[in-house]
Amino acid sequence: MKIATGAVALLTTVSWNVAECLGHRRAPTATIDGGVIIGTTTRVPGATAVVNKFLGIPLAPAPVGSARFSVPKPTNWSQPIETKTFKPTCIQVFRPFEDRDFIQDVFSIPRPEESEDCLYLNVFAPRKTWKAFFRKAKYPVLFWIYGGGFNFGNAGQPIYDGSHFAALEDVIVVSVNYRTNFFGFPIAPDITNLTERNLGLLDQRAGLDWVQQNIESGTYSYNPLPNCNDTNYASWNVLLKRLECENATSTFDCIMQKPVSDIRYAQEKFKIGFGMAGDNITIVCDPRLRREAGNFTRVPVIRGTTLQEGSYYATKNGTDIDRYFNTYFFNETALKEKVLEAYKLDPVEGRFDNYSILSQIHTDWNFHCPAVFLSNNSHRYVPTYRYLFHTTFPNLLFTDLPDDRWPVSVQGAYHSSEIPIVFSTYNLTNATVEQKRLSHTMRKAWADFAKNPRRAPINGWKTSGANGSTVMDFGIDGKGEYRLVKDVTGKCWAWKDFIWTKHF
Ligand SMILES: *[C@@H]1O[C@H](CO)[C@@H](O)[C@H](O)[C@H]1NC(C)=O
Ligand SMILES: *[C@@H]1O[C@H](CO)[C@@H](O)[C@H](O)[C@H]1NC(C)=O
Ligand SMILES: *[C@@H]1O[C@H](CO)[C@@H](O)[C@H](O)[C@H]1NC(C)=O
Ligand SMILES: *[C@@H]1O[C@H](CO)[C@@H](O)[C@H](O)[C@H]1NC(C)=O
Ligand SMILES: *[C@@H]1O[C@H](CO)[C@@H](O)[C@H](O)[C@H]1NC(C)=O
Ligand SMILES: *[C@@H]1O[C@H](CO)[C@@H](O)[C@H](O)[C@H]1NC(C)=O
Ligand SMILES: *[C@@H]1O[C@H](CO)[C@@H](O)[C@H](O)[C@H]1NC(C)=O
Ligand SMILES: *[C@@H]1O[C@H](CO)[C@@H](O)[C@H](O)[C@H]1NC(C)=O
Ligand SMILES: *[C@@H]1O[C@H](CO)[C@@H](O)[C@H](O)[C@H]1NC(C)=O
Ligand SMILES: *[C@@H]1O[C@H](CO)[C@@H](O)[C@H](O)[C@H]1NC(C)=O
Ligand SMILES: *[C@@H]1O[C@H](CO)[C@@H](O)[C@H](O)[C@H]1NC(C)=O
Ligand SMILES: CC(=O)N[C@H]1CO[C@H](CO)[C@@H](O)[C@@H]1O
């Protein structure tokens, strides 16, 4: 399982038509296409600006009942509605079932309410000053698409709170819920339009449409290739069996009538995965060829990875190297040989045991090397900035996980640990000075890039250059320092053939 995270910085500004009640304590209201919304306000430490929050704005009619697999369409309402609290997240699947608690302890804090009625988005906007109001000031928008490997995720997670961005950087943050797993990617024979098998992607696009700008959807970066065989219904057929629908007159109706809890449980317990259907519209089957031909939306990018992306995944799957290879690279014997040679025990390079070997392997093939290859490619067409996130702050470590499966000593700069730094949503109580400084730097860099993507996000941050190897190393001293360095990409060659055929 891969948990992709991504933010898309919209490159244009929008006018957020807020009927400001400047100087008054009244709740902020806004008139949008769908109707009138009433939000709430907040403040963040260190900022004078007030933040207007509109949480749980309806994005589309609820996809429930017979509308379960409906394509998101604009919705509207006649009376003003309160948008003051997050709405439930979409139905989530945490696979395998045995790992349900562990995955949530790391990636879903606190555990949200779930519902099929989940298509809502959230806006965090700086309250305009009188001056800005009369200038008709416009703000750049940062659009946040949460990760979760298209199995789970929730725009309302506290670490994704956009208040600091809005208050301190004068940008608007929009985050959107989208459907995942079976509910977002129903590859079923009864749904004949391939694009309508990618509802989760359509939901994301609906969120972008809502922002009403001509922007690109999230880069399809380094996920495994989508299912490009239109008639491969392997997952659907397993689900039919597990839900005892295989002999029904209408198998589709049979599944539609099953309770959500049964559908969720079957996916977790029997490890049934639903992914995207390659339709060459929402998701293409030949992304690498298109990228190499420069056939993509030409906008500048920042992309980066953490130093120990794989530390969580390697733990999750134990320390048996053979089992790991059987799980991820079944029957790829040549690859296994090449990789194990490249990553043999070497204390100098941080490989002391099976676990540290697997942690490095997972970091490289799933995150680090794809970032290198992608940067090497995109820098030929668009300004491409790459970063590494290197540091581990004590208040971001998981000290109270129920068993010893992921000890604090090996967590490191784990997958997603840069997110609370970029959003400034880490726990302030025990934050270090270095942490606050680094958070300020990264948050500002992201915001400045949205304001002007033609300029380096930080002075002196050079583009990734030949071989994608020039990187800004955030936390290079293990604390808050950052510096431009040459990344060590030596082992990526071991992965090139595999990644290029299976993941691009
Ligand atoms: C909602 O949209 C429909 C279709 O455009 C329109 O007919 C209806 O009047 C709208 N309702 C409200 C309350 O705006
Ligand atoms: C397939 O579905 C998409 C999304 O609803 C729609 O835009 C497109 O027109 C449909 N294609 C056909 C051939 O009906
Ligand atoms: C697509 O999947 C079906 C079902 O597994 C299989 O019979 C068929 O051969 C596959 N088609 C291709 C082109 O691989
Ligand atoms: C469906 O039919 C097959 C073959 O007759 C049978 O083995 C299976 O038990 C049936 N499944 C259910 C849920 O009735
Ligand atoms: C998508 O494009 C690929 C590569 O060009 C092609 O093989 C595949 O048939 C296309 N699929 C659809 C659904 O258009
Ligand atoms: C570029 O993309 C367009 C549409 O997405 C497609 O029709 C075309 O075949 C692509 N060209 C190449 C060289 O991939
Ligand atoms: C390390 O992996 C090898 C190969 O799968 C396995 O035989 C061995 O038991 C593993 N050692 C530990 C401590 O897990
Ligand atoms: C494993 O790979 C070998 C050689 O490429 C092939 O003959 C065999 O059928 C594969 N086994 C499975 C189960 O895919
Ligand atoms: C923040 O950290 C302090 C000290 O470790 C702890 O008591 C508090 O519960 C934490 N707050 C949150 C929201 O996690
Ligand atoms: C947080 O800081 C306080 C005061 O400096 C200290 O007593 C406490 O042990 C710290 N807690 C953690 C979890 O680091
Ligand atoms: C970068 O791209 C060039 C040109 O395609 C290629 O020769 C080189 O091997 C690539 N390097 C990496 C690290 O992918
Ligand atoms: C995704 C994956 O490979 N999960 C495996 C991790 O290891 C457990 C056993 O501890 C297996 O049951 C899972 O299938």
Overview of this protein structure:
This protein has about 500 residues and is α/β, with parallel strands linked by helices. The protein folds into two domains: about 1-285, 3-Layer(aba) Sandwich (Rossmann fold); about 285-504, 3-Layer(aba) Sandwich (Rossmann fold). The chain is built from 17 helices and 14 strands. It has helices at about 100-105, 130-135, 165-170, 180-185, 200-210, 235-240, 250-255, 260-270, 285-290, 310-315, 320-330, 335-340, 355-380, 410, 420-425, 435-450, 495-500, and strands spanning about 5-15, 20, 30, 35-40, 40, 50-60, 80, 120-125, 140-145, 170-175, 300-305, 385-390, 470-475, 480-485. Strands 1-9-10-8-6-5 form a six-stranded mixed β-sheet, sandwiched between helices. A four-stranded mixed β-sheet has the order 2-3-4-7, with no helix packed on it. β3 and β4 (about 35-40) form a beta hairpin. The longest helix has 25 residues, at about 355-380. The chain is globular and about 65 Å long. The two termini are about 15 Å apart. Residues about 1-25 have low confidence and may be disordered. The structure holds 2-acetamido-2-deoxy-beta-D-glucopyranose (NAG) (12 copies). One 2-acetamido-2-deoxy-beta-D-glucopyranose binds next to loops.
